[in-house]
Amino acid sequence: MIQLTRLNNQTFTLNALYIEQIQAFPDTTITLTNGKKLVVKESEDDVAVKVQSFYQQVGLTSIQIKGQWNTQEGEKK
């Protein structure tokens, strides 16, 4: 789960498994797998980092971002 902020400053928690895409229009818009759209204050990059971190926490990926170990290839990027 990731914590995000709506444009009215209300925070909420989203199950990142349901995210289909993230876009900036310029506001960051998250489209869920059911077609629902959410607009949040966080940048597109910030949301992507939160999603990646969540995936690592639940064991869905072992690939680290920017200079971290890539355990699938066994080498440092």
TrEMBL record:
Pfam families: FlbD. Keywords: Cell projection, Cilium, Flagellum. This is Flagellar FlbD family protein. It comes from Evansella tamaricis.
